[in-house]
Design brief:
Number of helices: 16
Largest sheet: none
Number of strands: 0
Shape: elongated
Order of helices and strands: HHHHHHHHHHHHHHHH
Helix content: 55-70%
Strand content: under 5%
Length: 266
């Protein structure tokens, strides 16, 4: 019965809604083995029908161990999917135990800034395992929309680049004439984080972070949390953090109190 269901689910002559139902049954109720399910997934992931494709992607993601067998197909078809589907693919790639680097590299050339930014987030989370993509990450950090550059700089801080060259480049970024906006502030926080991760405590620009910490919004919150991560080396920011423990925003108060405990331990 499982083999017949699989054959029907992979049959392109059948209506996509029926194939979607059969695929869902195979992946959840039937617990089809990989030798039966993988051909169905490959056939479905090659389809233009969005709902069938989404069902196949969800089925693939339920078992991360099977993702490496599907990633070559997903990488080839990546540019043809919608922006929302490409973002969904990156979430799946983040869970793959191996084989995702070609897809991530292709995503860095995507026309969508949101896709490039998410790809950089996944690359950064893989650390040393993604060092082969370091040249593409460095290129993304040099120019483009500030949110993408910020994501690239954060990834750079986790990929162990050449220390001296990276520090010189990051100091240059920190000195850029940036707009006084949330995006500009977040880029400075990202550069500050990368400087600290690559260079250590002496390179942490604590005064810049303390200034951004006063700013309402996500960048200010990130600056507060980063000061806490830096710890005692950020002790000169203690007065700012102390004042922020009385901020109107409860998230800011909580983050400032937590950072203060690490910056000024008892």
């Amino acid at each position: 019965a499982v083999s017949r269901m699989a054959a029907a689910a992979a049959d392109a002559r059948r209506a996509p809604p029926l194939r979607q139902i059969l695929l869902h049954a195979l992946a959840t109720w039937g617990r089809a083995p990989d030798e039966v399910l993988l051909p169905v997934l490959r056939a479905s992931l090659a389809e233009a029908d969005h709902e069938l494709w989404a069902e196949a992607l969800a089925a693939a993601a339920r078992e991360p161990a099977r993702l490496p067998a599907l990633l070559p197909l997903l990488t080839r078809s990546f540019p043809a999917r919608t922006a929302a589907e490409r973002l969904a693919l990156l979430e799946v790639a983040a869970a793959a135990p191996s084989g995702a680097l070609p897809l991530l590299g292709r995503a860095l050339e995507d026309p969508s800034a949101d896709v490039r930014r998410r790809a950089l987030g996944v690359i950064g989370s893989r650390g040393d395992g993604a060092r082969v993509l370091l040249p593409l990450v460095e290129e993304a950090a040099r120019e483009g929309p500030l949110p993408v550059r910020a994501a690239a700089v954060r990834a750079l801080g986790r990929l162990r680049p050449d220390r001296e060259a990276a520090l010189d480049l990051l100091r240059k970024y920190l000195g850029e004439d940036l707009p006084d906006t949330e995006e500009g502030a977040d880029f400075r926080v990202a550069v500050s984080e990368a400087l600290w991760r690559i260079g250590g405590e002496p390179f942490a620009p604590v005064p810049i972070l303390a200034g951004i910490a006063r700013r309402p919004g996500p960048a200010g919150l990130r600056a507060i949390r980063l000061l806490g991560e830096i710890g005692f080396a950020a002790r000169e920011a203690a007065p700012v953090l102390t004042s922020l423990t009385h901020a109107p925003d409860p998230a800011v108060r909580k983050a400032a109190a937590a950072a203060l405990r690490r910056v000024r331990p008892r």
